[in-house]
Amino acid sequence: MRAGVLIAARYRLDRRVGAGSAPEVWRATDEMLARRVMVALVPPEHAGDLRYRHRFQQGARAAAALTHPGIVAVCDHGEVADIDGRPVPYLVMEPAEGETLADRLAAGPLPLEEAVRIGARVAEALAAAHAAGVAHGDLRPANVICGPDGAKVLGFGLPRGPGGDEAAPAADVHAFGVLLTELLTGQRALRALRAAHLPPEIAELCSRCRAGDPRRRPPAAEAHAVLAAAGGRAAPPAGVLPAGRRRRFSGGATWTLGLATTVGLTAAAALTSVVLPGADGASGRSPALAGPSSPAATLEPPLFVSPTYATPPQPSSPPPRRKSPSGKPPQTPGPPHNRVEAPPTRRPSREELVHRLSRVREVIVAGRARGEIAPETAAELDHLVTDFQTELAAGRPVRVAERVDLLRTKVGERRRDGKIAKPRAQWLLAAIDAVDPTPYAAPA
């Protein structure tokens, strides 16, 4: 395509911004509503693949359901014929002012404070998208725009191309680790971290995100919690609004928020992400987070491993239930008898608590992907887990026992409502118990 071309008798291409593995991204003008937009175009050589076009439609619908300050919003999609009559899928997004992160990095690494702030925003956006069942697939500096409103990840919604691997959250986390390394050092090689004299927790996060085994990579929500704490930002992650309560895209600053469902589950080419494999839009079930062909398939078994606790195979009968602070036993199925109690005098540190809460999230993710937890329930539980993690990472006073008991109570309520399958509820309760094994201990 070239500048000046009118797409769908409405969007006039003005200036090309960049390209992912397949799509071209243009700044454009919506001549019907007299507003600025961004348009992503799929090359005609890819558009002839019917399977690819179907994946494009699925991805566009999934991306349109995301609303997050760190994600460039999708507002329209369709197909237009090129000069030879071949169909060319396109995606229309809100305008994102600023320069790409690739342009910023051309002059070298960013100052530590700025790099941490941008990294936290990108990790937060990935966590929100993963919670909504959408992975990116091509996260890199060219697909992140830095503007007055902070960093924004370009477009969730387009597959990489015919024959390309399905995107998966673990692959996004690896790409994020590479991007964060480049932000901090100006280089992609992991060895550059050794000479950069970075805070140990940030250097460790880069290494963990780039682990060869996808199961060893932290979820995006945990990466956000680490960076938010390092940057001194205590605000909880912003949420993704469900379909029907999305931001109204008007080219201005008006927001129609309604009741936001804050999610950070583990919910950039906008143009390179897809709805996760196994999605079923009609049923509303959340998709699996990694397809069998992906090396990042990490859903099952939903085991959690903390510095003190391990999860052996599930036995036939659960142990007695623990009492809540009120003295009344929670009305929930008992967890599997799979905890090894720590010495009663030992109190977990904040870092350990954040780590163990990430294991709770893994059980939620696996249950949602397998249809054992309703999507809205997964979002509700993750809201609680994410706020808990963020407050711990930010150093705020936290009543750990009360927050743990609240999680247990919610799991019990949703189990009785039929929103969580009984086996998954047992796994969740076991993971929650492992967060603070000494009842009602305060964090170190």
UniProtKB/TrEMBL annotation:
Q: Which domain of life is it from?
A: Bacteria
List the biased-composition ranges (Low complexity): 282-297
* Pro residues bias (residue ranges): 310-319, 327-336
> Which EC number(s) does UniProt give?
2.7.11.1
Keywords on this record? ATP-binding, Kinase, Nucleotide-binding, Serine/threonine-protein kinase, Transferase
What Gene Ontology terms describe what this protein does at the molecular function level? ATP binding; protein serine/threonine kinase activity
Region feature Disordered, mapped onto this chain: 280-352
In this chain the Protein kinase domain maps to 11-227
Q: Name one Pfam family in it.
A: Pkinase
**Class of this enzyme:** transferase
Protein name in UniProt: non-specific serine/threonine protein kinase
Organism, per UniProt?
Thermomonospora curvata (strain ATCC 19995 / DSM 43183 / JCM 3096 / KCTC 9072 / NBRC 15933 / NCIMB 10081 / Henssen B9)
